[in-house]
Fold these 3 entries.
Entry 1:
Amino acid sequence: MSDPRILTVRPKEGEYAWTFGGAAPVARIEPGTFLNVYTEDCFAGRVRSEKDLVSEVCEFPFLNPQTGPFHVVGAEPGDTVAVHFVSIEPARDWAASTTVPLFGALTSTHATASLQAPLPEVVWMWQLDRDRRTCLFSARDSDIQVELPMDPMHGTVGVAPANLEVRSALVPDAHGGNMDTPEMRTGVTCYLGVNVEGALLSLGDGHARQGEGETCGVAVECAMNTVVLVELLKGVSTPWPRIESDTHLMSTGSARPLEDAFRISQLDLVQWLARDYGLSELDAYQLVSQAGEAPLANVCDTNYTCVAKIRKEWLPSGDPHRGLHRHLRETAALLSTP
Amino acid sequence: MSDPRILTVRPKEGEYAWTFGGAAPVARIEPGTFLNVYTEDCFAGRVRSEKDLVSEVCEFPFLNPQTGPFHVVGAEPGDTVAVHFVSIEPARDWAASTTVPLFGALTSTHATASLQAPLPEVVWMWQLDRDRRTCLFSARDSDIQVELPMDPMHGTVGVAPANLEVRSALVPDAHGGNMDTPEMRTGVTCYLGVNVEGALLSLGDGHARQGEGETCGVAVECAMNTVVLVELLKGVSTPWPRIESDTHLMSTGSARPLEDAFRISQLDLVQWLARDYGLSELDAYQLVSQAGEAPLANVCDTNYTCVAKIRKEWLPSGDPHRGLHRHLRETAALLSTP
Amino acid sequence: MSDPRILTVRPKEGEYAWTFGGAAPVARIEPGTFLNVYTEDCFAGRVRSEKDLVSEVCEFPFLNPQTGPFHVVGAEPGDTVAVHFVSIEPARDWAASTTVPLFGALTSTHATASLQAPLPEVVWMWQLDRDRRTCLFSARDSDIQVELPMDPMHGTVGVAPANLEVRSALVPDAHGGNMDTPEMRTGVTCYLGVNVEGALLSLGDGHARQGEGETCGVAVECAMNTVVLVELLKGVSTPWPRIESDTHLMSTGSARPLEDAFRISQLDLVQWLARDYGLSELDAYQLVSQAGEAPLANVCDTNYTCVAKIRKEWLPSGDPHRGLHRHLRETAALLSTP
Amino acid sequence: MSDPRILTVRPKEGEYAWTFGGAAPVARIEPGTFLNVYTEDCFAGRVRSEKDLVSEVCEFPFLNPQTGPFHVVGAEPGDTVAVHFVSIEPARDWAASTTVPLFGALTSTHATASLQAPLPEVVWMWQLDRDRRTCLFSARDSDIQVELPMDPMHGTVGVAPANLEVRSALVPDAHGGNMDTPEMRTGVTCYLGVNVEGALLSLGDGHARQGEGETCGVAVECAMNTVVLVELLKGVSTPWPRIESDTHLMSTGSARPLEDAFRISQLDLVQWLARDYGLSELDAYQLVSQAGEAPLANVCDTNYTCVAKIRKEWLPSGDPHRGLHRHLRETAALLSTP
């Protein structure tokens, strides 16, 4: 891609970011730029066989490397950065998943602390067939194999947080970050509220696929070649990350306990409908209560993430975020993808 | 329906049950019986216009009337009762929803207690078009109307609880009860573990449709004419309510905080796959983590309910619950539905 | 004690209650009656040595036997029963504690479900010196012994619940029940809101002592000889169990997650001060925020229990519950204790 | 104080830190240094009368100013910094408390989100009598006044966090920070695990007194003149902040939901006893279960904080943290306090 609007970034070792906030920008980009980026997997590429245990090959806190951050020219607190996912393609024909001691939903953890012994540390290597778009699961304790559809996504996308903070790339919160929702797939636009000048956008943590809730704490982790189109919405604030697809509006909430993540995401969707669709808050509350979906994103990270989702065809007429998603979709279609 | 295998029950006022456990059976039924029942709505039919506020027309604790209980002949603790939903049809051309003071997900409650004033009490009357299978939402604070697909379901189905307890019909727990999941629709089989002799099955709380999470605490509440086919699985225990459709296996968990409902449902699905599909527990944990869905049921009731769900086509070969769902599906197809 | 106002009850095997609600009263008592009762320990007396594992010697659901219920003549919904603890004396010179598989705060449980193995099941036998008022802890894995002060209390006291429910004696909720707070000691008055005619009061689960939070799920469990003085407050409602000592007012809340138990207890104390001490709700909120104590009761039972506590000498003048505690204290002093 | 071991620091406006981590050290200090510091109140001194509403006079995120950070010479990750509180004296004869919109335990918040209106914003000015050691509460809605004992403490003390993070001074976590426990009073030693070279210690948020749980979210906030003695324990790690008084050992945990804060604090205390007192983990679990106290610290901050506490006289012989508290106590006694 030699298009001047396209910036290609393939970080070398030592060039990744491990936090949101606190890292110097790798580039300044104008709104309207396509980023063609390589992202490494959450293990920094160190889990390559069933013998590579996270506790042995990974080096804390150097987990979940992010490509970026990118300084979006003109972005200021109170604005919104829109990240449209043009394509997300596995960069390898394999991916890895694993249990991690005292991490995941079906084990005690450092926070849900117990005196029990951790679960065994086991690695599953998944074979990816990029032509047939499949991921092959091979059981460790039997000969069972199961082929699942590939459904590539990014677990992590975000901007620098508010309140002068720097957060680990493992954390999801109002700045985005490690939300780990399968909804962050090709074709959607993610809206992120800007907290610092330039927004400082980065992304990583590609998954060839992931179940809702990411129960064991780790998805089908994979390096990715990803193209996103980045835009800027001046003067529009976005309190929590939102996602728009061709068919749905989605709000996210990240918190503990999980009901607070639910409450945040539902209130955000209610207030989004009230702002952009002419409904009163109570009418929007009623409509979301009967028409909404609530797929869990992750129930394993430092905060849990919940998605509130509603079909656009079930909404009254409205123009969310000034019609930006439709515009980005059309612009992306003009690009000859790599 | 004059088929001897069919029992028709249309309770009169005073003949409903308000609890699981603690109510005398209305009938004894043999396994293999079709129940053709009328269920009243959760308001006991008392909310019939926008002027009928729950706090004025309803009488606590007489909420969420249940049709039943039915004594299933031969059911003993350690067995499983299977309830196959043959049809769920709205009995009226309207349904009601409402806010209830200090009840719902986006308000403080008697448990998540605060010093704030409750939200206003507002009723929404929904028009049902049973031919076109639609539900019409009419906003209260504007002229906006939205037509949604009808998707009838039962919020409540369960058996007498364990541990000598009697629980309000408003409570979901291991005995089933008020789980409020939209997955409880026509065509599925619900498996319930038996805790007392005869199981004491009842059901109610029909919804013309409901969003995931039932955010405002109340769905599109509607009286129903429902046909279920009841079977008994001797010697098979079911620790938490499970649902099987033609395409999916589902486990439920009901608890607070919401992450515990998630944990229960996920562990139950993992252990179900381990029992019936030949996977080790850790392999099942990995497969569910990557292939599972996790739609919320309710985040408003005394316990919150979460569903763990997996596509049967993505599983290795297995025969869950001895192939009972397929058998019930076929048996139901033979019945000329009313 | 041959005083006509005294009723002595020493249940035989088979005469205990295992629930709140759902059990026939063992006696009708007039307000002003002293109950001189024997209570068995939570294991129904079956854990008598280090070899008696709960999973082997106890029979679910026959845990936590209650002495009662007592029908308090004249008690109706909306009234309050007051239970003044005159004396609580260990009935044996030993007590037992233990880990129970998948029960307790530092282990996964049936609700906080995990794939980990349970902790080992270990019994600790405690020697009680009733003259010196001490409890002797003997470590199992070393020769260490520690002598702690005896501080006898009842883990469980309550009335029949509202909403037509019957709850296991293991559950704490608005009806009281298994609150497991060390504050329920000799000299205090416990106020319980009446939900059914006659209140149906019972008590049990004596502890020679207990830490706050009851971390391992089990206290120093002991049969007790206990004297309580029971009174009735007509026309005074008590939404959650309250405790009054000579020095403190206390409100309890029982719920999950633990912050909801905290919220309930704090709101109840704020509203208690607003009702009986002439403070506005916001002023009471401020005073409790600066003057209150918040000792945890249990973080292991079906609901967790939190206590909100304030010194009476730090309150403006007021007369809580019509001065009943002071009156009961004086009446009890007149009784020659056994 | 002209003692060379004493460093006096009275920051000017613009010289406070607003985060843990991410701020340049104001001084390098040798272990054994006395810090004689002024700390401003959590409002940065801007709430000075009943008319000064936080939402009007304070400027987010410039809340909770910290004095520091101090680079402790020689401190490296894996070590422990000990902060002994020699004296904490109110710097003014008044202090302020207030409700803050959508902050506190008895209101919905940005995380426990609801559609309800916030509580009214009210300021209470407290008069401090430093000679009589009292704090005078004056109700806003009546003439009621109540005098409470002064019990000065620091809500916030901590070091730079691990994992490359920078956290707002409003956050409590494993690095300490805004724990808001009344136990952080004169005479105690706080142990903090070192995460970065030099530790980067800071403190602030003085309270003339505070209730357990800090229910309304704000204590009796007061600028302080405080003397601490700082020491370094090489090669001793401290996973969560610990506090030692002359009479008690205390562990803290900060997390959501509140039961996780409880679990962390209890597990830490159990493992502390196992390390320093020769008990096995299960024996320590039993002893803490029967002898421990569990006073809540805060149930309002970004994480909730719980304290696990045990009397030293009830422990077998042991020498926690190499007897450092006793040594610091003696050293402090030699200092002629200001």
Entry 2:
Amino acid sequence: MEYRFSDIFRYIKPSEIRSLLKYTSDPELISFGGGMPNPESFPIKEMKEILNDVIDNYGKKALQYGTTEGLDPLRDELAKYVEKTEGIRAKREEIILTTGSQQALYAIGKIFTNPGETVITEGPTYVGAISAFNSNKAEMIAIDLDDKGMDVDALEERIRNFMANGTKPKFIYVIPTFQNPAGTTMVLDRRKQLLEISKRYEIPIVEDNPYGQLRYDGDPVPSIKSMDDDGNVIYLGTFSKVMAPGLRLGYVIADRQIVEKINLVKQGLDLASDSLSEYIAYEYLKRGDIYRQIPKTVSLYRKKRDLMLKSIAEYFPEGVKYTKPNGGMFLWVSLDEKIDTTRMLERALKAKVAYVSGAAFYPHGEKHNSMRLNFTYSDDDKIVEGIKRLAYVINEEMEVVE
Amino acid sequence: MEYRFSDIFRYIKPSEIRSLLKYTSDPELISFGGGMPNPESFPIKEMKEILNDVIDNYGKKALQYGTTEGLDPLRDELAKYVEKTEGIRAKREEIILTTGSQQALYAIGKIFTNPGETVITEGPTYVGAISAFNSNKAEMIAIDLDDKGMDVDALEERIRNFMANGTKPKFIYVIPTFQNPAGTTMVLDRRKQLLEISKRYEIPIVEDNPYGQLRYDGDPVPSIKSMDDDGNVIYLGTFSKVMAPGLRLGYVIADRQIVEKINLVKQGLDLASDSLSEYIAYEYLKRGDIYRQIPKTVSLYRKKRDLMLKSIAEYFPEGVKYTKPNGGMFLWVSLDEKIDTTRMLERALKAKVAYVSGAAFYPHGEKHNSMRLNFTYSDDDKIVEGIKRLAYVINEEMEVVE
């Protein structure tokens, strides 16, 4: 039979990253493409202890439907965790668990945007956010970022233009710390300025902070949410990078009104998050395992970042630019403007190395000469070998375009 | 600050069932409201063994991001399971895991309906489906059901009316076996007729079958999907009622085109389901634990159904009608037409007994004198006591309305 699908498929397309996953079964391929944590960072031993205790102590509850907002004691532990790590003060009622941060992004798109309404993002920005906002048929405007984060002056000018036309973007989406994909961190002054802009124009900020605890050098910069006293900031956190991404658990911290709206939307999306995973996360926080695990992960990833940077310096052709992130999981590489990394990907896959091409991180694919490299997932020897292969591919491609 | 929310909140409202959950902390309240399995039905011992083996054997994979479509070996085991239990033949590529059946309902609404387009449901129908379809701004038309299931003649007439106006509903949503909330089962003839209608008018059927394995008496009726050879039926299953609902795992079996569309939408919704839960489900199927657990659950629930029916016969006033389901989790009680069960609920809560009022199960709240009673969750003594309280409440309400 012939199916009559909705028009949503004019807005969403297969994700390049997800499509790349099918190549991961090729053992020869070295992939810098995914955004996957290294399995060495998973607290397997602690997980086993926790799982046994959860089944023994809360078995029936951990297997039963939970509430849409998530387990109360987990939300209380989260309040302590974000206060300790990010200086954010939140009450239980201001926290809602989500099925990964992806669901939070989707729900936020849904509660704020009608089809065609505008959302501001950084350019480049997280591909999963593009997918979530596109799914809600939002229009995205990307504001360039540099090594100090989003260009907030350009942002304000853009907002003024909107206001002059009698309209306003619905929210401003940023990943201020160890940005995905750029690896850059927004400096404190700009964070303050962004918050001022949010207040002045009454446009909420969505602060996505999956990587904040993965700092390898430099001093922490306060989260925007920690400076927010008027409910301007909607904060997104996740267990994916500090526990395990297979347990699909993220959270939103925001004004109660927003939490209630997300709750209502989540009832239609999946009723509630995975109870067992919520109990695991609760114990992981309560026991303090998280505070012992993060430094191990940081130490593992710092070495990998250093190794990738060193290999790039050694093998990449001159003139290639790349970020040197103080944390997170990604480097952002910018090639000669003549190069289209989407087209180059085919060549790379033949050379058995993968990345995500830069265009995927722009709402309208507007820039073509960049790529995102993940440095956390691959084994050390593969990092070196993969960068060698990529250097070869770039050199080849440059010969073609010149 | 003042938030500018989208117009979605004109379409979705807080669910009465979810709202009732807040009363569950009152130990005096006897709730027939939720759709929760009895925790006695959870395979706790088996879960503990499985969890330990999963961590030992697949720890790193079970904690890592999974693919959007779900674990390949789980999909293969599911193919065997649905063939054995429901006579459905499916290839791996025709199966996609979802974060509970709720996500499947949401995604199906999303891939098929543009705002204002029509979906046909049974009347009454599952409240979570109403919520999922409303979230996609679909228009719902409920076709009455009787003790033989949906009135398929009325359905065909309705479709003809649509066609006469140059339009067509996008799909037909049914819960043919042990319907939620009515407890009725669609007879074989009507299933065949429904499939014929689907073929004739090229309108897909969404067959939701969460309770199919919970049969307490009578002979199994073939699933509609088992009779489908043209991709007319989109089949929804779940682990919630045969393993544990806290592990948010459902699945869709459908034509590859549909599975691919759901995959694309799911990437925006939550990237992938919970990996740990997928590994647990895989082992639960592979070991055959599921085939040992279902008969235990059936035996537990059969007694509870019998007890509730007996108590109703004993205590409810004459003239009250109710279904006598051969399986599933719910009874549907119809009171005097003058009674509005939504209004009566306040009186019931004062008497410390809860139900879900019938209006919640109609897309436009069109009928007011019914209620859904869950018989699986409560302890036996509470079933008797709760029915006594409810009888008292009904008698009181009847005095008021007369």
Entry 3:
Amino acid sequence: MTTLEPVKVGICGLGTVGGGTFNVLTRNADDIARRAGRPIVIQQVAARRDNPACDLAGINVTNDIFEVVRNPDIDVVVELIGGYDTARELVLEAISNGKHVVTANKALIAVHGNEIFQAAAEKGVMVAFEAAVAGGIPVIKSLREGLGGNRIQWLAGIINGTGNYILTHMRDEGRDFNDVLAEAQALGYAEADPTFDVEGIDAAHKLTILASIAYGVPLQFEKAYTEGISRITSEDIEQADNLGYVIKHLGISCRTDEGIELRVHPTLIPKQRLLANVHGVKNAIEIMGDAVGPTLYYGAGAGAEPTASAVVADLLDVARDMVTEHKYRTPYLAFSGIIEQSDQAPQVLPMENIVTAYYLRLMAVDRPGVLARVATILSEQGISIEALTQKEATEGELVPIIMLTHRTRESSMNEAIRQLESLADVAGSVTRIRVENLDDNA
Amino acid sequence: MTTLEPVKVGICGLGTVGGGTFNVLTRNADDIARRAGRPIVIQQVAARRDNPACDLAGINVTNDIFEVVRNPDIDVVVELIGGYDTARELVLEAISNGKHVVTANKALIAVHGNEIFQAAAEKGVMVAFEAAVAGGIPVIKSLREGLGGNRIQWLAGIINGTGNYILTHMRDEGRDFNDVLAEAQALGYAEADPTFDVEGIDAAHKLTILASIAYGVPLQFEKAYTEGISRITSEDIEQADNLGYVIKHLGISCRTDEGIELRVHPTLIPKQRLLANVHGVKNAIEIMGDAVGPTLYYGAGAGAEPTASAVVADLLDVARDMVTEHKYRTPYLAFSGIIEQSDQAPQVLPMENIVTAYYLRLMAVDRPGVLARVATILSEQGISIEALTQKEATEGELVPIIMLTHRTRESSMNEAIRQLESLADVAGSVTRIRVENLDDNA
């Protein structure tokens, strides 16, 4: 069957994803060779320590990752060490040595991707990163190739499993954020320092990558708006439920006439939407194209073998395209000439300029005229109210007022909230959660 | 930017999908050229009549589809005429003339695919058919490339929009099959002769294609089991709802030690599953891989531009790979050497040999001992009951007995039903609907 030379792979890093990749490549080697038309063999592995899940008998193992990128017998370097600086140095040296690169490193691509793609283009090598976004879900391939006939209008995704695990359990069990976070940490779903996940940085890395591929613009992680879920209360989850919504931590990118929205924040989603029904550590991304309409991609966003699944898919692409002239390959960010023409690309919108609907919750003294004052402030900012509920209370007591607004500009909402918080009748700060109201009916 | 020669396309058929393809290629031409690195131009269109949705000014139009496949200026023939015989002849002649082929024709691929791929392999040309399954959802690409590292274990999908539209409205509005079918016909969602859609033939075509790609076996449409939705009653939908299930028309293919299951039939799905929440004309396919676990792909399964989205994605693949040697291209059915080695491939299981859980509804006279007789028959066939409900009634009246069984072999269930229907206490025939109980937790 197989008549072509094997593709020789060097794996840098043998942690969770490295171990998974090693095992999938080994276990499914025969099927993979039948798919690629040639074997994909592990030529060398660089690891600082053993991974007990992997049987390394007969494998060339080094503890120096740079040995792999300098190994003349290696065609493709698989970077699975994570982090920024060393990974950047490793990948750039691999490229400089003419090797193709496969990486699962979202931080590296989101932050150093423009530089890496520029270097790779000059050397004519591939850099593949399906595993960097949403683990095993083939969303990069779907967006970059499968939807290639479309002008992408927006995308919205649950792209951090830790955050979704926490929100799912807060909702199902009526528990508090800190309580569920502690459980997630005990189960290994959250890191000891959970900032990266729960504050939305990890999701913003992934969103940055998706948006660049969707619209053909350079990576601009530094312009992403990021808001975490640590201030979401079980009260807000319950109120959202009463209104027919579920709160999810979404990454949203929308192409508007003014520019590109790039934002990660807690979001109310109508219950009947598929995204609202994605639970636990699972990920899902909804993508709207002008021809196809809404599509959705769901699966495991992390974990050893789900992520390995994406790494191996990239290796299959490399195996097929390594003989192809570079100009015929799919561009890294879907469109050719992105970085060279970045001055002509649409700009990322400042958060003040986005337009969305809002959920607001404020605690007000239940006395005559309060609602009128609240409504006047919103009205003066051009914000119209879609729904309002106020619990009954004894006059003079604090009572929550819950509102859903129609779409308005964030800057108007900021000003309205400033004024609401300065009202004598309003206690504490106003809770504001954006509502996902992207058009699902193209 | 663009330095490569344009790719010259001939479109055969300018109906719904042909018109959509023409319009998407025209409207998004600049973006498509930036993606492909070269323009994709419509060199000729063959149509028996005008499509008022298309502006054909300046286009070379013929009414002879065979002129397109003989046109020496055309690189890629896009077959959008549908049907079996003429489409087969057209595609085989295009291949014989050394042209690549893109088709949306599921019937053609499911029935004549083995012959077509064999001919194309001999000529070294591509035959792409993303649009043949689930319209705009890039599920062929995801299964064949994105999940290429996996051993696929099963897949299950809502792959006929007409059937899903009917079942959705039957459930939401408590209406009967014939009533909703008439409405779907009036709205253009169902054909005047709905057999192809509601009896599952269209879904079986698509399932056949998906299964071949999933497991690397030849296309075997003639071995697919097909059961339609025309006998589903609103009573069964309501009973399923009470038990926590939704009835969907699923195509299911599962790889077992004994062979490959290939079956289309109404199916009970637990309400919380994403597949149960796919409504109206939308499609979704869940795919289980050994590395990635469950993944799901959702979107529009039909319509002019959703299907065009898939056709254009295939054209982009052809544009990139037409310079590549054939042996480096992704095999038509994911694995190389499938048709040549078909004697070694796993066989499609006869329906009698599948193993699944069941929902049963029977009308029995409410008299002492009936339940015991029913339970004895099931027990003697080795079938265990998971749940049983019997409505209260006056003794001697007919009353429905509803049961959910654990997994059992179809042949045992056939025998049990034969015996149940021969009981004097049981009136009429036993309704049997299979329950989707594929493992979602790999």
